[in-house]
Amino acid sequence: MGYKAPLGDMQFVLQHWLGVERAWRDLPAYAEVDLALAGQVLEEAARFAGEVLAPLNSAGDRQGCRLLEGEVLTPDGFPAAYRAYVDGGWPALACAVEQGGQGLPQVLDAALLEMLYASNHAWAMYTGIAHGAYLCLKTHASEALQQRWLPGIVSGETLPTMCLTEPQAGSDVGLLRCRAEPLADGSYAVSGNKLFISGGEHDLSRDILHLVLARLPDAPAGSRGVSLLLVPKWLDDGTRNAVHCDGLEHKLGIRGSATCALRFEGARGWLVGEAHGGLAAMFVMMNSARLHVGLQGLGHAEAAWQCAREYALERRQMRAPRRPTSVPATAADPISLHPAMRRSLLELRVRTEGMRALGYWAAHWLDIAAESVEGGQRDKATKLAALLTPIIKASFTDQGFTLASKALQVFGGYGYTAEFPIEQTLRDSRIALIYEGSNEIQANDLLLRKVLGDGGEAFALLLGELQAEAASGAPFADALGETCEALGALLPEVRAFSAADDEYPYRAAGDFLSLCAMALLAFAWARSARCVMALAEDDPLRVEKLESAGFCFDYLMPDFDRHLAAVRAARAPLPFIA
């Protein structure tokens, strides 16, 4: 079972759902980009993902990475695939032209990332943080550091890492102990241990650029005393920096990704941004990474849907209660005809295609935030992208794992064996709920900081987008309108409950995020239904999209009511565990 990029649906989202060609004309940086060019980019990305990366996926999982005398060897074929990636110019896709990039929209980069993660998540881990590191250095690094390091990141000559976690400091960054001592030449000597560093050591690129959170000698306690330092694997004089890989984690999934324990022994580093201002710089990278991790969930959902559909159309078991008139009656029907399997397959398709529209929508808002010449539009786009990021990271990764599990169920016992790729998809997808800020942290961030923290301003903008779609009068607009009304009415209750009980928002946060995700799914399918109404009644795309929208509102949206009730039920205190 190979991976084939869903180019048709990607193009539907770009052309019809987003209307990017019209939007790009209003963004000077993208005024020359059109759907023809976007289509060429997607086709080439699909070829790379399907023909180069996908064949390495299961073999890389079986072989894993090896640590030999401090050097990491990645699975066979991974370095050659990376050279092909660099030769294709993919690292430069969404980077600015003045830094040597291609200057293409973030939404095209989102489509590329979906394909990379769907075809080979482990390999894509080595490249996944690169754009976030590029943005971090572009925003916070000195001109000298930018001139020295940005060209290598853009070209792919250098691969960056994010070194945050320590054995005693995971989500609580204030507990980290890694230290940085100033040197006479303005650089720093960085010492300490870092854990769970993806791509901390490998053989894909010669140089590795570590972005390390550490404390300066005069640092105040807690997270306010954290600085960000740039620590390369190789120094400019050709000597190896004092960064050592002490071990590789043996993991449930993404076994072809080198997850390293790193030791810094007075390694030379350079300050990025202000002293003690490391979190502000790091969060530029982390916010980019969180959207990208959400796209991992989308990639896993797409891979799971493709596997399950292909198997279900071929596997024959029993006679189905009903079948299309075009399908002759036989002693055993494809399991795709049985109601239980139809429901599972439809959920896989509908949630996956809905996530694609929403993920690309968030990336499109990032393009507007970066390139719009109208200040009010930039401000709106920035707020919406920030609000959407924790929803997408948490809900997409949750669905990536849940849908992989549903897809495995379609295979029955075969799904539990290594004979089919779905068991690897299930294993690989699980990590995305944990890293780059666990989904529980994303939920807290959404409700406490992004909704209650700004007085509901960004939430009102999002609700306004949904309400505008609900006012379109298209199919399912009324149902979306009811969802918007319920969501809008809930916020004053949440404020009141939070004012009366300061732990309440932490108890309600998970269901509140899921509630928002369900409202966004309804929005995605109401808009999809409206977009296809201009097509001929017998057009297969129109028929399928309307069927999918109907399934969403009939079978999936009852989850909205369940999460709505759970947000209110969270007023009850939680007992402590003895």
Structure characteristics:
seven-stranded mixed sheet, two-stranded antiparallel ribbon, Butyryl-Coa Dehydrogenase, subunit A, domain 1, Butyryl-CoA Dehydrogenase, subunit A, domain 2, 578 residues, alpha+beta, single chain
Short description:
Strands 3, 4, 5, 6, 7, 8 and 9 form a seven-stranded mixed beta sheet that branches. This protein has a two-stranded antiparallel ribbon with strand order 1-2. Among the domains are: 118 residues, Butyryl-Coa Dehydrogenase, subunit A, domain 1 (Orthogonal Bundle), CATH 1.10.540; 119 residues, Butyryl-CoA Dehydrogenase, subunit A, domain 2 (Beta Barrel), CATH 2.40.110.20; 141 residues, no CATH class. Strand 1 and strand 2 form a beta hairpin.
| Overall pLDDT confidence | 97
Span between N and C termini? 48 Å
Largest beta-sheet details: 7 strands, mixed
What structural category arises from helix and sheet content? Answer: alpha+beta
Shape: globular
Rg, alpha carbons: 24 Å
Q: How many β-strand runs?
A: 9
Secondary structure: helix percent: 55-70%
Helix and strand run: HHHEEHHHHEEEEEEEHHHHHHHHHH
Poorly predicted runs of 5 or more residues: none
Number of discrete helical segments: 17
Beta-strand content bin: 5-15%
